[in-house]
Amino acid sequence: MPQYGYFDDNAREYVITRPDTPYPWINYLGCDDFFRAFFQHFGRVLLLP
C-alpha cells in the first residue's frame, strides 16, 4: 500500500498521502455511551446507542 501512504516510525502511525484509497479507511472509537467513526476524508459520524 505504499502508493497511498507510509508508516511513520517516530509517530508510530500510518500516514495517508492520497485520500483516494480503493476502499474507505475507517477508524472506530467507542464505548458503552457513544460510538464514533473517523474516515480518511476527515469526516466523522457520531452514532449514539
UniProtKB/TrEMBL annotation:
Which InterPro entries does this one have? Gal_mutarotase_sf_dom, GH65_N, Glyco_hydrolase_94_b-supersand
Identify the residues that the record assigns to the Glycosyl hydrolase 94 supersandwich domain, covering every copy.
12-35
Report the Pfam families cross-referenced here.
GH94_b-supersand
> What parts of the sequence cross the membrane?
none
Task: Please report the name of this protein according to its UniProt entry.
Answer: Cellobiose phosphorylase
Question: Is Zinc given among the entry's keywords?
Answer: no
- Report the superkingdom from the record: Bacteria
* Gene Ontology MF terms in the entry: carbohydrate binding; glycosyltransferase activity
Enzyme Commission code: 2.4.1.-
Supply the alphabetized keyword list.
Glycosyltransferase, Transferase
Record-level GO BP terms: carbohydrate metabolic process
Gene3D superfamilies per the record? Glycoside hydrolase, family 65, N-terminal domain
